[in-house]
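Lab notebook: predicted structure, single chain.

Context: the supervisor wants predicted structures on file for every construct in the current expression panel, including those that have not yet been purified. This is the next one on the list. No modifications to the sequence; it matches the entry in the shared construct table.
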Amino acid sequence: MLLLRLSAQDLLTLDERRRMVPHLAARYRYFRGRDVSRSEREAWAESLVQLARDLVAAERGNVEMIVECAATVDAPEKGEAPLIDAVLVGRHPETHLPSFQLVELKRWSTVTRVEAATAELVNVPGIAKPKRHPALQLRNTYQLFTGDQGPLRGVTIECGGFAYLHNATDESVKPLLDTLAPTGAYERVYTQDSRDRMLADLREHFAEDGAASEAEQLLLRMDLRNTPLLDAMIMSRGEDTVFTLRRQQLKVATSVLERADQVLGRPGGPVRTGNDERAVFVVTGGPGTGKSAVGLQLRADFEAAGRSVMYASGSRAFNGALEEQVGYTKKEFKKRFGYFSDFVRPVEVALDVLICDEAHRIRERTEDRYRKEERTGTQPQVDDLLDAARLTVFFLDESQSVRPKEVGSVSLIEDATKARGITPLPYRLREEWRCGGSDAYIRWVRAVLGIEAGETKWAPDGLMHVEVADSPEELEHIIKGEAEAGATARMVAGFCWPWTAPRGKGRAARLETDVRIGEWHRRWNAKSDHFCENGAVPPSTIWSVHPFGIDQIGCVYTAQGLEWDWCGVILGDDMVRRDDRWVYRKGKWSVDPETKVRRVKVPGSFDMKLREAKTTADFERSVRHAYHVLMTRASRATVLHSTDEETQNYLKSRVGEVQIHGLRPTRENLPPEAWFPHLPSPKRAGNDVPPGQGHIF
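Prediction complete. Output recorded below exactly as produced.
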């Protein structure tokens, strides 16, 4: 758990805009499931801000403040993980080692001793029960951070702690300062009287320059950063996802594996004959909660145990990216991975396990316009999948269903499962690891798009960055600049322009510049399964991961299930803001008399699949969900631009100013620890990688 990570000077900027306390309160509610107390909100507004002011006064405004955090993301066996008010992060001015100070903030103005022989417990006016000496709290926190399971274990650092009672005087809290008080590296107590000494100590513990590198190291060690999915697959060459499954993720994986032993028998044990017991798991979770990580880990575990297992998806883009990046041959890939439509024909022998990722993309029935008789289903597609294996695991996020005929939902799966006499086992993944681990950003996206109620004003949290570009040219400049610096980056857009098929044959086929915003004309990613323009444009299935994909614009169908460090999102005229609500529109085209190419006549949606929506509500829901997918593809930063002036102004009002020092995660602002080595795809020779594409961050 972590509520905020900002430098002291940036925290003050956020507070001046009156956005700090609401942001902290919203994150607290998300993690704890209840509203924070009024006294805690007042403490943030008073004590936290005072500490930040003192850091600036000590000329240490670049020291990072990690606010209200637990030592790890793992919950204790009982109760809630204890929180520290703030962790100050920087570099020691003499040793140059990472320097940490654990801080307990108290608004106590006076205390009295409970027992004459000790100062471990004190009475505080207005508080019924005696309170422990802050040094004892800091002792426990210090052990959590530096102990055998802590994020600072085994690291050579400078680390201590102190309590700050800015409302008190030395005399009014004398029991906390006398010889009977607890001692240790964390025993210091500062008051109004000792503020000057505290400022001097801050200068002694922290260098004047920035501390982003040390803060990033701490986030990594606290498991608040995660390896991107495809990079993990590359590193493992497909044999293991290289993910450390955490908490709910591990619980789901363990439950599935244990249930498999009950249904299928233990690996290597006697074959269970005459047993047709089946089991179904339904795992839900928002973007970046680890659904694919759990699924891919389960696939690897089942394969290692000798089970017959397939990993199916409804996304050609996701499967194409896996095949391209991991380096499977087509035969190897087909043995392990498939599509929901592959199970339209009854299997002779049921698989042991079928893992269905992106299950919100399940269709009403399997249809194939090219092989109608062979590939058209005679029953609902969900039944095809349930027939295919004895143990089936569905991973889905209902807010990512983007086509009217995508009917995958918890209720659909539950009804189909119960009709077979099977009780499905439900699981929910809550912690988000995509979008920099910023659950606040994901909730903000959902609130802005009207998917659910919530705060629509963005408050920077040091984990995820968002900004609004004034033009498509500016958006492209930002995204391509980050790609050239070594980031993974893509531009995507709502389906608001016609999409022309490649003109010509084979690799020589040319793409039309369909996406047109004023004088800015760009190509959609190729509507093709092969390279176009003499190899300069990759097929749609690998647009998301091929280096040359940076020059084309993707849409929801080629972006879903994938992620990049930076994502530029163009909102078109299919969803525009009018007064205080969203308005949804369908577009119309005309044919250019010279080129015979379709052009926009009436702005709006040009997604032919959405035009088949049975109701207006279905159309509007699909458009909202499409932008929800597009706006949650980045792990570092999202850059937005709307083609509609009123919508653009609305976005700017929601995002606010972005000129906050050091928060924009460009290469020059990111420490080396934030850069992860990126291995090239084994399928590419390496000579088609543009400069700067050797690493990502």
